[in-house]
Prior knowledge:
By secondary structure, this protein is of the alpha+beta class. It contains 20 helices and 28 strands. It folds into 3 domains: 30-168 and 190-215, TATA-Binding Protein (2-Layer Sandwich); 216-408, no CATH class; 420-627, Transferase(Phosphotransferase), domain 1 (Orthogonal Bundle). The protein is 38% helix and 18% strand. Strand 1 and strand 2 (31-35) form a beta hairpin. Helix 14 (437-445) packs across helix 17, helix 15 runs antiparallel to helix 17 (530-557) and helix 15 crosses helix 18 (561-578).
Amino acid sequence: MKRRKDEQRKHSEQPRKRREEKSVTDKKGTARMTAGHPVPELADVSPESWREANRRLLAKTLSEFAFEELIKPVPLEGDRYRVDLDSGVSYVFSASQGALGSWRADKDSVTRGAAGLLGNEIETPAWDAQQFLVDCAGTIGTDAPTLGMYLTEVSATLAVDAARIEHGGENAAELRELGHAELECRMTGHPTLVANKGRIGFSATDVRAYAPESQELVRLQWIAVHRGLAEFRGTPDLSERAVLAHELSEETIAAFRSRIERTGGDPDAYVWMPVHPWQWDHAVQVLFAGEVAQRRVIPLGESADAYLPQQSVRTMTNMSERERFDVKLPLKIVNTLIWRGIPPHCTQGAPVATQWLTGLLDKDPVLRDELRTVFLGEIASVTVRHPYLDRVPEMPYQHLETLGCIWRESVSSRQDEGERVRTFASLLYVDEQGTSFAAELARASGLPAEEWLTRLFETVLHPVLHVMYTYGITFNPHGQNTLIGYDGDDVPRRLFLKDFVDDVSVSHTPVPERGPEPDGYDHVLPRKNPVVIRQHVVDQLLLGHFRYLAPLVAEQLGVPEERFWRLVRGAVDAYHGRFPEKADRFAEFDMLADEFPRYPFNTDRLVITRYVDRALRHALRPNGTVANPLS
């Protein structure tokens, strides 16, 4: 144990390529994070880094397209597979297959075959992800306009990935020392989506200023919106004045009041709210130009506090005053399948959904006392509707979600002394030396690998299963929304859950334990079939996370994939054995079914949804099934 920690320390002290950094301190003078420019200009990215980023993304594209059956690899000898495309081009690569229909292509094994001048097929090493997408467009059934937009997203993703490779970044041992917000800035994006950092609408300069991987501190623009346009809502213990007092100093409040008065307005006739500076410049001052001119929207100035973007880009964590709220703000960009605004029904419904859920779940002795699960409430919001666009039937949603905000309890305000909180997604991170963060944490804990994994699976699954079985409620527990609290030895101990209003769903079957439910919030608390409720858990935990974690664990911790899935099944069985009286619910939300529907995220973008403007967000439809490794 001591030798391993000495080796980690020695490794972390090795010189690495870094840029000049700056630090921000909290009110106690303690360094809270460092920020610099880890995403260099594209001109500073070497051809080698660009090709390596492409090799990785090409392997991911082959893997995910094969999983979704967009392409159908034909087996050759050994572990080699061939894909023949309608364009006349073929790709051959080495790959392994795993549970839940997963594919894992070897990035260094791919070759591209095309007809030469004499009609013979010439095979060359393949590294170009965009070339593959052009080659396979006819096979997968996408069209030119869609491919044009998609290649824009892929190119933007590659630019960030290549810059990350060029810079190097911290090794897995160093990441253990980071706080949850700083760690978010080191993540590499959605594991399933090929174009996971598209951010259509951001320029290259915007990415360096506002993307999480840039690690740049952001100061928010505050505005006052007349109450004829804006509505504040909060949980019962949070008034509008209380939120402002929590988020702004007395001096700032006085200065903002003075600015409104200088325009001839009454400060109390306006709702005050933060706006992302990019959104203020690119959307609000354009779409709400008339309201700004008529002093129905008044700019107040920047916040004194500095914020750090989380992986969603639109959610900001306060780095100056860590006890203050996180704030979720709309951005008129396309990223990971949708426009990243905030629907008015979400801003309106966030406080009431939070009050109902926390009032229900905080009284549950298993969640409260035993599992000590933390539900990070969305405790206040501002809704602003556009005076003209909001009146037009079937108006595409991108135009209706440009102004509003949701305040959420911060992780820092709820974590214990000495507790380390990290997003679930961080376990899939692999540093440039090839070490996975999950393996680093397991080794650092001093526990046998299987014991650490068992703690992890029970920590993640038991609260989610308890809420689903007991109340017929599920969240969307993907890597961003799910955070894990670790003790001082990096052993998983409890779960933090967030993003209620966007992702919570309720079974349409009557569940007495839920008690009276909020009325008139079907958009916020959609009623769904229990099988669909279960699918949220399956998609986000099993397909969206464990499917990728299993091979990392096999490779770096020596736990074979079959054994990995037996341990996951063991965590489910342990909960079932603890509460046998819920057997009917276990059958209703059947986690041990023989198979699960497969939802094709990349197919949806390329073939089904494409980039057509829609009045509502598009619901994914299943495409086939996958065998359940827990069955």
